[in-house]
Amino acid sequence: MNKLTIIKVGGKIVEEEESLKQLLNDFSKIEGNKLLVHGGGRSATKLAERLGIENRMVNGRRITDKETLDVVTMVYGGLVNKNIVAKLQALGVNALGLTGADMNTIRSEKRPVKDIDYGYVGDVKEVNAAMLASLISQDVVPVLAPLTHDKQGNILNTNADTIAGETAKALAKLFDVSLVYCFEKNGVLRDENNDNSVIPQLEKADFERLMKENVIQGGMIPKLENAFESLDAGVKEVIITHASQISKESGTRVQLTVSSKLIF
Amino acid sequence: MNKLTIIKVGGKIVEEEESLKQLLNDFSKIEGNKLLVHGGGRSATKLAERLGIENRMVNGRRITDKETLDVVTMVYGGLVNKNIVAKLQALGVNALGLTGADMNTIRSEKRPVKDIDYGYVGDVKEVNAAMLASLISQDVVPVLAPLTHDKQGNILNTNADTIAGETAKALAKLFDVSLVYCFEKNGVLRDENNDNSVIPQLEKADFERLMKENVIQGGMIPKLENAFESLDAGVKEVIITHASQISKESGTRVQLTVSSKLIF
């Protein structure tokens, strides 16, 4: 199978002109098939504040009422996505910005209300792998915004790490997928205040232990859950690293177990 | 050649839920190849107002400073475009939202400063007709936002009527193009206060006379200039009509001259 590199960029990287420029420059140099997934939460928060819309977060997830949905649709689907696409085009990458609604790339369902009503948040149901593979085979580079749709006319807000994980899983049947989560830290850290405390290899058993010990917490938990799910579903490699290191051997390599590594 | 229907929808239609719903429903029923171009100026004006950004218009064109560019990128590329795409997907139309940056659909150049500095406004230089035709041949329905790019990393604001006209011209080499400008009026009116005063056929000589007599004025002038340019470039048919009448024989049919009509 052909190789496909999926880069997920989030955190402060996409919000700051210099770091984004560097990341896109590095991304443009990745050889072979590639796909970019971006976040944009900080910009959405800023726009909501300017509009007097309250930002409500639960476990790092945004409660998305109708007004907030409009904000994220503007910021993720418009401002962040289109600026990335324009910059990649300038770097010679034939980028195409996509939300889940475009060509039915990612269909989701509005999250059922249990303890918390997340509002217009979508849980991914189906990634249109055949369509993405067809675009990729035509040398198009998809740039996915963290928005999906329910195929009933509604845009839904969906976590970018989840988009990256689900897309990697769906495409793992068609490509040898490397999934790289990059952000402003050097990887998964033993001590969140020490950027040199990167855990070079993280297995599932370690993850569960470190979670219990509160070494791994916050937004890193769903990111790693996505990572392990992706590996379970056949993704070849998951790396969590600094945005300036996407093509280098650094950061944290996530793996199921040592023995499963030998099977590959 | 195959037929292609290009619908440009603007004015209040895209901003009001009911009229947009009706328009998209009618659009979904158009048989054969089709493409939609939308505006969104009123929503951009509203968002700018909420953000305390001054709206400056000259001859119906928006002066686009950096902040305003962000507003139109969010509103046209995000809010309006993605909601239309999601609604069309629900109607069974395989819509794909595109700005000029996406797959280099429309390249423009920043308008040179003469009497007026329009700011980040792009004059169309090249429409990627081959790429659009390839998408259309795969039953994809492009939905174009009024944004272009300069291939140097910058999004530029571009009038939606111009986008529709330039796209029609570029695709006229590959399809028999019908271009329909639809909005909240019944067509080109002799008396702007009387919606029953539609001019059923408008030739270039009439247009020039009616412009001198101030019967045709404002935003209708560039719209008709685009229309005549499109006809000159081989577009088969240009209609200006009410959004509720896009598939009916009504509104204003724009034509070069009676004799040129006979040549077809």
Structure description:
Two copies of one chain form a homodimer. Chain A is α/β, with parallel strands linked by helices and 264 residues long. The first copy, chain A, has a single domain, classed as Carbamate kinase, CATH 3.40.1160. Chain A is built from eight helices and 14 strands. The first copy, chain A, has helices spanning 17-29, 41-50, 66-90, 129-137, 160-171, 204-212, 220-232, 258-263; strands at residues 3-9, 33-38, 57-58, 61-62, 95-98, 106-110, 122-127, 141-144, 147-149, 155-157, 176-183, 201-203, 237-242, 252-255. An eight-stranded mixed sheet of chain A has the order 5-8-2-1-11-13-14-12, with helices on both faces. In chain A, strand 9 and strand 10 form a beta hairpin. In chain A, helix 2 (41-50) crosses helix 3 (66-90) and helix 5 (160-171) runs parallel beside helix 7. The longest helix of chain A is centred in the first third of the chain and has 25 residues, at 66-90. Residues 260-264 of chain A have low confidence and may be disordered. The A-B interface holds A 47, 50-51, 70, 73-79, 81-83, 85-87, 89-90, 94-99, 101-104, 140, 147, 149, 151-155 and B 47, 50-51, 70, 73-79, 81-83, 85-87, 89-90, 94-99, 101-104, 140, 147, 149, 151-155.
